[in-house]
Amino acid sequence: MAEISINLPTDSYPVIVGSSLAAIAQRVEPSNTFIITDAVVARLHGSFFPSVPTFVLNHGEQAKNLSALSDIYTWLLNHNANRHSTLLGIGGGAVCDVAGFVAATFMRGIGLALAPTTLLAQIDAAVGGKNGLNLLGFKNIVGTFYQPRFVYCDPALLATLSAEELQSGLGEMVKYAIIDANGMFERMEQQTQALRDGNAEVMAAFICDSVRIKARIVSADEREMGLRRILNLGHTWGHAVERETSMPHGLCVSVGLEFAARLSVAKQLLFFSDYERIVALLRALGLPTAAQIDAAAAFATMRFDKKRRGAGIDFVLIRGIGDVFAETIETEELAKFLGLH
Ligand SMILES: NC(=O)c1ccc[n+]([C@@H]2O[C@H](COP(=O)([O-])OP(=O)(O)OC[C@H]3O[C@@H](n4cnc5c(N)ncnc54)[C@H](O)[C@@H]3O)[C@@H](O)[C@H]2O)c1
Predict the structure, then answer these.
(1) Do 329 and 217 reside in the same domain of the chain?
(2) Buried b (16+ CB within 10 A) or exposed e, 305-335
(3) Whose alpha carbon is nearest atom 9 of ligand 1?
(4) Which of 46, 137, 147, 266 is the most exposed place for a label (fewest CB within 10 A)?
């Protein structure tokens, strides 16, 4: 078991990796804890849950909408939840986002704990205190920063993920590997088959690597005023792809990583050989590097993305493995890159 600390100016909390979900009951106060989960996770892993009142969401992205909220707030009130209650989110990134938003807003903030059950949520969505809900088709357009008291990652839960959901997590993992300057990219290159197979030991090691990178960045910049922006690597184009297709988030990020790398080559920041290495790793993990989408529609989406600034769009570019930076790019330049002018 590993405990990785997220150190913030006002608080710090642990991300616990490698302990069984069955043991989470020891970390919460059963008489004042409420679980939010989804139907799939409840069916597969509900026997490990502490026995406390449990709200079951529709699974997946549909759960991340404002209309679901009033039912949850009402349910909490009906169960006499109070300002000292803890909301425990057990599920994928969608459940973690909903739990985070509800905990941040119910009675202006109650306790939050997260037990992510997908690879993507264990390495990303549950770590760092951001939450987001969707509106009018725009991803995560409403949300807050709200830190949990702890995050509890049991890699054994990943055994029930579909191949596609596992790959979705691997897309985000490659993002960390490109950001990392300490050899994570090389280690992933050496372990592509074990990662595709979901080998528990290898997976647990890379979950720790990913969480450590995110912990370091979030500890330095909780509110995404500077450094934290680099975690959006692959996401500007990735979100546009997500809106135009039905692919899971991490697969869209994979397409976005290829795009960011190709744009970096076009801007003469990245050697073509490094671009080829990034694409080769994505492909070796079975991840997509392109999507059949209407470039003009995706471009329009990107212009409305919340990362848009003035006349430009925020992008994270790559100078090399372990060397990325955020930059605002003129919309005209992007339109030209996409062959739209
Ligand atoms: N707040 C953040 O910082 C942040 C970061 C990254 C992603 N996200 C959000 O996370 C969401 C994506 O998360 P996700 O990929 O976990 O998707 P998800 O939560 O939609 O889960 C995907 C599917 O897997 C199922 N599932 C969950 N755990 C399972 C398990 N152990 N075995 C079998 N099936 C399981 C779910 O029921 C769902 O059907 C997106 O909405 C994205 O915007 C948020």
Answers:
(1) yes
(2) bebeeeebbbbbbbeebeebebeebebeebe
(3) 93
(4) 137
